[in-house]
Input
Amino acid sequence: MSAEKTILAGWMIDGTGAPAREKVLVRIRNGVFEEIRPFSHSAVNPSELIDFSEYTLLPALVDAHVHLSMSGTIDQDIRKRQLSDDLETAKKCISRNLAQLLSHGVLAVRDGGDRNGYAQRYKENAMDVQYAAISLRVAGKAWHKPGRYGSFVGRALLKGRLADGIYSENRQIDHIKIIQSGLNSLTHFGKESLPQFHINELKEAIAVAADLGLKTMVHANGRLPVGIALAAGCSSVEHGFFMGEGNLARMAEMGIFWVPTAFAMKACGACVDEGGAERLVAMKNLECQLEQMTLARRLGVSLAVGTDAGSIGVHHGSAVIDELQLFLEAGFSIEEAIKCASLNGANLLGLERKGRIQKGWCTDFIVAKGSPSSLPESLNDIFRIHAGERFL
Output
């Protein structure tokens, strides 16, 4: 199709959280939205019209937390092999995961690291042309304390200061990933792990990252680990289970993003014995996280959809739908949830003029079957995806 298009959208979600609009005329030229206004038959030549009157237009999606070198398989033997794969094997896994993300309308991805830095090396040297429409942001390898959680997504700080390690970091990365707590317990509800880095160490590290022009995504669960991450000035808190209302209020005040990764807990619970103690704790963890998301919405926290895809039972692409469904369960409207998966994610990743259907912005959008009431399930079978100047 030509670079100039005139579209009739039956419904449009613009990515700002505003209510969906019906019967909208959208003109695009050279990869930019040129005009968006109510549809009128008198204002358009029918022969030039692309009729999507039975469909919903919405911005392309962002998954703000993935691990591309891993799949969502629940087969533990495969998961162990993926952790020790060579680069060529990992490239194939990453390509498969990008294909799944693309098929679900995800055109921007933030990788949270892997122990070998394969996602970074893939982006540098092996990015397949068929996935060129995806904006890929990579952390390379995450940082964690020796003997603490984090080895499967990065490396331990063996000597010196975290700030020094970050300063000498590979300059090809797009952001810094720091592990500040452990995992959530499936045996003791609400159990918090100790922080990995003290406040001065983390503050210094985040300041150095900022001087290098790099944002920081900090894995943190529990009141104290999250509180330290916020006080240190991180760009986003990843997971944030059991952080409490005080931290949420501070997050809203400071404009720090929260990526709650709620579905990863639901998927984890589904992989343990039904009716067992671990399943019950996992579901209680999830319930608590949804309550925090409800509170965060009321407090005005900026949330971004991130799935933790590559975790057990969390499949790239489809997990965005699962995560959006949990946003709805937490009280978000579909328009608000889409904002978290588009505009907020784009802002977190630093993508200019993306994540919103707005005059002058880039024309990355999805054409989903049916009305907004069909979302997010209709994202399982997207009708069309538009990126740049063309339909994919």
The radius of gyration is 21 Å. The chain has two domains: 4-59+355-391, 61-349.
